[in-house]
Design brief:
236 residues, 4-stranded antiparallel sheet, 3-stranded antiparallel sheet, 26% helix, globular
Length: 236
């Protein structure tokens, strides 16, 4: 009889130990911080790497989508005359060459950036001027932030690609731009990204962010809405 009691007590202790172990294991799992996403996918299935800079999540490549996030097509416009007369969203490749799109993404006019159907993937937005200011300040100010944002070396940037370290992992590439009159310019030398913020509605321009091959400076200017610039997105 004593032996049976001992066996029973041992069984009860083993059961309690297993219950406590399972309970602790569940709690430990529930307390784990979810792994941060390292990519984002647009409506067409294009995948973009992401990076964290000063508590904001950025795309590490330029946008390359040809649909708004509701699925409607953004027109591709190749004709310079048609481009300069647009008052609605459109995109193009630099020099109308799809090979440039593989490396640098698409160039968009500001009407596409501002279209209510949404250019950025769900849960993301086109960088605003406030996002630009926060990014530049976080990277040490306009005199040095550009170097920290540019891809290092001369694989894509022409020499000397001054002060380029890409220490932020932003990996800015010199995709050039399409001017408001439809001419492709400055590939290898400059990059321009649209912001979603108007400078002054009376003059019809919006803020951009610019990097150049011969300096580590980053600048911003009010650009014509018909210019074709690259686009980067920030997580909401």
């Amino acid at each position: 009889m004593k032996l049976n009691n001992c066996v029973l007590m041992h069984s009860l202790m083993v059961t309690m130990f297993l219950m406590v172990t399972i309970s602790c294991s569940k709690k430990a799992n529930s307390d784990q911080t979810p792994t941060s996403e390292t990519t984002v996918t647009d409506i067409e299935g294009n995948v973009y790497p992401t990076i964290s800079i000063c508590n904001k999540i950025w795309m590490a490549k330029n946008l390359n989508v040809s649909k708004y996030k509701n699925g409607e097509l953004i027109p591709q416009v190749t004709d310079p005359t048609q481009w300069k007369n647009l008052t609605s969203g459109a995109w193009c490749y630099y020099n109308n060459d799809p090979v440039n799109g593989v490396v640098y993404g698409k160039l968009y006019n500001w009407f596409a950036v501002n279209d209510p159907r949404g250019l950025a993937p769900v849960g993301w937005h086109i960088l605003s001027n406030d996002d630009r200011i926060a990014l530049v300040n976080c990277l040490g100010g306009g005199n040095i932030a550009g170097g920290k944002m540019k891809e290092a070396g001369t694989t894509h940037w022409i020499s000397p690609n001054s002060d380029a370290t890409n220490s932020s992992s932003f990996t800015g590439l010199p995709g050039g731009y399409r001017s408001g009159i439809g001419t492709s310019l400055d590939i290898g030398q400059h990059t321009y990204w649209w912001s979603s913020t108007l400078t002054d509605t009376s003059i019809g321009s919006a803020w951009d962010i610019d990097l150049t091959y011969d300096s580590g400076v980053t600048t911003s200017a009010g650009s014509d809405k018909n210019d074709g610039f690259s686009v980067r997105c920030v997580k909401d």
